[in-house]
Design brief:
By secondary structure, the chain is an alpha/beta fold. Helices cover 32% and strands 26% of the residues.
C-alpha cells in the first residue's frame, strides 16, 4: 500500500469509501479525500482514524502529492472534476471495485459474499466470526460499523471477506457489475433478485451477471432461493455446497424459533446432526444468513462447536434491523430495506419478534427507477404492516426525475385501487409526526426503512414515542 503513495478517495464519506480509507491506514498507506459537507453516518468513523477530508470537489483540494485517485459511481464517477483533474496531471485513477481487488489480492483465502439481499449482514457475521475464531481477517463490509467492529480492516493475510456488490461500475455509461472486478476463491451467495432496474434490464439479465461471477469458483449457495436453484444445473456440481430449510440442502436447518431475544435453530450437515445454534438476529432470513456463514466456516476447516460460540454474540450491521430506541413497551427499529423483498423480510422479522404488537412502518422509497419498476410489489409488502407511512422518493444523482413520471403518492394511489387502506403518503416531517402522534399507541413497534436518509428522522420520531409511551 505504501508503494501507491498518497491516495485520494472521491466521495470518502460513503460507507464503502470510508471503510477503504480505514483499510489503507491499517495497511500503512496515506489517505485523504473529498465529499459533500452534509452530515454522514461515517463522519464518526473518519474522525476516529484521523482521516482528513475536504468539503466539495474543488480542484484546489486535490493534494499535489496525490499518486492515486479512487472513485465510485457517486458524485459523477469518472466525470467528477477531481478525477478528470487527476488524469490531466498524469495521476493514476482507479474505480473502487478495482482497488478493492488490489487489497484483497494480498490475502490467501478470499471470500466474497454476494446476493441482492442480506449480503451486508452475512458478510459482517462472517467477518466477526473469523475475528472471534482468532483468524485475524481483513474485511470490507458495506456498513460503517457492525457491533463493536468497524466496517473495514486489514490484519493478517490468511483471510479476506468482502461484500460483493452487483451494482454497475458507473451507470448509465458503464453498467458492468462491480463484483466482476473481484477475484475471490469462494463465493457465498444468499439470493438473486431483480433489484437494480437502472443497471439490469430484467431478472434474466441479473442472472447472467451472477453466472459470470460464479465461473470457476467454489460456491456456497442458499438452497431456498428459487433463482439460485434454477442455475445449479448450469454449474459444476463439484464446486457447489448448499444450505437452507429445503431438504435439498447439504447444511439443513431442521428446527427453528424466534422470540424477543433472538433466533435458535438446529443443523444437520450431510445427514449428521451438528447441534443447536443461536443468534441475536430475528426471522427466517437471518437464520438462513447465519447458516450460510456456518457452512462457509465449516468449509474453511473450523469446528462446528467453535463456530457456534463465534456467532452467538453478533448484533448485526448498522441499519440492519437495528434497535434505535426503546421507551416503555415501544420500539423504534431502523433497517436499510429498500426492495419489496427486503421490506417483506423486515416486516416478517418484526412479526416473529413481536407477534402480538402492531407493526408501523415509515418507508422512504429509493430511486425513481426502482419505485416505478416495483410499484405494485411495494404496495403488497407495505400493506403487510398494520400501518405504513410513505415519504417522498429519495432520488439518485444518476437519475433524471423527468425520465420517471412517478411519485411516492402513486404507491398510495395503487394501494387504494387494490382496496388497501393502511398505506398513507406524508410530504413533510411535520406531517409525518402529526400522523404518528394521532395513530400510535404505547405498545407499537416502529420500523424506519429505506436506503436514503430516513434514519435521520429518528429524533423527530423519538419525540413522538416519548409522548405516546407514557
Amino acid at each position: 500500500m505504501q508503494s501507491f503513495g498518497h491516495i485520494f478517495l472521491v466521495g470518502i464519506k460513503g460507507a464503502g469509501m470510508a471503510n477503504i480509507a480505514v483499510i489503507i491506514k491499517k495497511m500503512g498507506g496515506t489517505v485523504s479525500g473529498s465529499d459533500r459537507e452534509d452530515v454522514f453516518i461515517t463522519d464518526k468513523l473518519l474522525a476516529e482514524h484521523s482521516i482528513h477530508w475536504s468539503a466539495g470537489f474543488h480542484l484546489k483540494d486535490l493534494p499535489h502529492n496525490t499518486k492515486l485517485v479512487v472513485y465510485s459511481a457517486a458524485h459523477g464517477g469518472k466525470t467528477n472534476p477531481q478525477v478528470t483533474e487527476a488524469e490531466k496531471r498524469g495521476v493514476k485513477t482507479m474505480h473502487q471495485a478495482d482497488f478493492l481487488n488490489v487489497i484483497m489480492s494480498q490475502c490467501k483465502t478470499k471470500v466474497a459474499v454476494a446476493g441482492c439481499h442480506g449480503k451486508t449482514t452475512t458478510s459482517a457475521l462472517l467477518a466477526e466470526a473469523l475475528i472471534r475464531l482468532g483468524a485475524e481477517p481483513g474485511y470490507f463490509i458495506g456498513a460503517p460499523y457492525f457491533g463493536q467492529y468497524k466496517g473495514g480492516d486489514f490484519q493478517q493475510k490468511n483471510y479476506f471477506v468482502i461484500e460483493a456488490d452487483e451494482y454497475g461500475i458507473n451507470p448509465p455509461t458503464d453498467k458492468t457489475p462491480k463484483f466482476l472486478s473481484l477475484n475471490p476463491n469462494i463465493i457465498l451467495c444468499t439470493n438473486i433478485d431483480f433489484d437494480h432496474p437502472d443497471v439490469y434490464d430484467s431478472l434474466e439479465d441479473t442472472k447472467k451477471a451472477y453466472m459470470r461471477f460464479f465461473d470457476s469458483r467454489q460456491l456456497i449457495l442458499c438452497a431456498d432461493d428459487t433463482v439460485l436453484r434454477s442455475l445449479v444445473p448450469q454449474l459444476n456440481k463439484n464446486s457447489i455446497t448448499t444450505y437452507g430449510f429445503d431438504a435439498y440442502a447439504d447444511l439443513l436447518i431442521t428446527e427453528n424459533k424466534t422470540n424477543e431475544i433472538g433466533s435458535q435453530f438446529r443443523l444437520q450437515y450431510k445427514g449428521s446432526n451438528i447441534g443447536d445454534f443461536a443468534i441475536n438476529l430475528f426471522g427466517k432470513k437471518n437464520i438462513l444468513n447465519a447458516a450460510g456463514v456456518i457452512l462457509t466456516l465449516i468449509h474453511l476447516g473450523f469446528k462446528p462447536e467453535d463456530v457456534r460460540k463465534s456467532i452467538a454474540d453478533f448484533v448485526g450491521a448498522a441499519r440492519r434491523f437495528s434497535l434505535v430506541y426503546k421507551a416503555g413497551s415501544m420500539f423504534l427499529i431502523d433497517d436499510y430495506a429498500h426492495h419489496p423483498n427486503e421490506i417483506k423480510a423486515t416486516i416478517e422479522a418484526a412479526r416473529d419478534r413481536f407477534p402480538t404488537r402492531r407493526i408501523v412502518t415509515v418507508f422512504q422509497p429509493h430511486t425513481y427507477s426502482r419505485t416505478s419498476a416495483f410499484l405494485h410489489e411495494f404496495v403488497e409488502e407495505l400493506s403487510a404492516a398494520d400501518m405504513s407511512f410513505v415519504l417522498p422518493i429519495f432520488p439518485s444523482a444518476r437519475e433524471n426525475p423527468k425520465n420517471f413520471p412517478v411519485l411516492s403518492e402513486m404507491i398510495v394511489k395503487t394501494a387504494i385501487e387494490k382496496g388497501k387502506k393502511n398505506i398513507v403518503a406524508v410530504a413533510t416531517v411535520n406531517e409525518l409526526t402529526e400522523k404518528l402522534h394521532g395513530y400510535l399507541n404505547k405498545t407499537d413497534v416502529l420500523l424506519t426503512m429505506g436506503a436514503g436518509n430516513v434514519y435521520e428522522l429518528k429524533k423527530d420520531i423519538i419525540n413522538v414515542i416519548d409522548i405516546k409511551a407514557t
